[in-house]
Design brief:
- The protein is mainly alpha-helical.
- The chain has one domain.
- Helix content is 71%, strand content 0%.
- It contains 7 helices and no strands.
- Helix 3 runs antiparallel to helix 4, helix 3 crosses helix 7 and helix 4 runs antiparallel to helix 5.
- The longest helix has 25 residues.
- The radius of gyration is 19 Å and the shape is elongated.
Length: 157
Amino acid sequence: MTLAAIMQWEFWELFACPWFWCGIGGWITASFIKMVIAAVKTHEFDFVYLVSTGGMPSSHSAAVSALAFGIGYTEGFGTPVAVVAVGYAIITMFDAATVRYAAGEHAKVLNAIVRDIKELKFKPVERFKELLGHTRTEVFWGMATGIAWATFLCWVW
């Protein structure tokens, strides 16, 4: 994207449409809920949850479901753009609950191997990030969060 494109009025219309705020708002809402849930468990606020992967509820699921429902509410659920948005949401949520979740499980095993190697006084290796994906419950509640946010925003808009 060039500076000339950003200077065009059409670019700034992005921030004036409900669909943008449905997706972003779904993500932010789920991230704040995730941070509060973690704070209740650990008794301290960790703002890393606002930009991290994994955890309850799924921010990815909230964002894509809010986007899909925002488009469905305003344009109609039978429109081609709504169908594309729903397909995008399904693929994203499936990925979060399967591929990324499995990668997190693999990271747990690799970290156990690394810990064992370190105990044998071999050269230490960095830990792998384990919280990558989501359980189906986390994906479901992320989706519910996104739908609730989109419903609220489109009702207010």
